[in-house]
Amino acid sequence: MIMKIAEKMIRDVMTRGVVTASPDTPVKEIAERMANQHLSGVAVIGAQGDMLGFISEMDMVKVLHKPDLKRLTAEDIMSSRLITVAPDATLGRAARIMGEGHIHRLLILSEKGVGASQRPVGILCTSDIVREVAKAG
Hints:
Shape: globular
Number of helices: 5
Low-confidence stretches: none
Mean pLDDT: 87
Strand order of the largest sheet: 1-7-6-5
Number of strands: 7
Largest sheet: 4 strands, mixed
Radius of gyration: 16 Å
Distance between the termini: 15 Å
């Protein structure tokens, strides 16, 4: 039986591994990482591995006009409004969250009680969902 796309688990579709930066990482360094590694975003992680925020391409664009751009750090431009889901959530749930919130990516956190819980383990972008729809044809 073919599983419906909406019933697939996020863990089977997400991009594994999350590129991270510390709060004091210079914005220029983050921009270089994003450009060189073709990333749409970077997670900002505290000293204990806790999620502090996320920097997207749009966050970079928003600070372009700032006169002190060279002095800005990850903490200065990150978005702390994080939308996260567990790896065992379905694509249907993720799509609903993304659609209702006009969000282009969700951060996937490890499940509670599994190793170092609530740590970023992947990212689900709208392009990941589009790729699944294309494969289903």
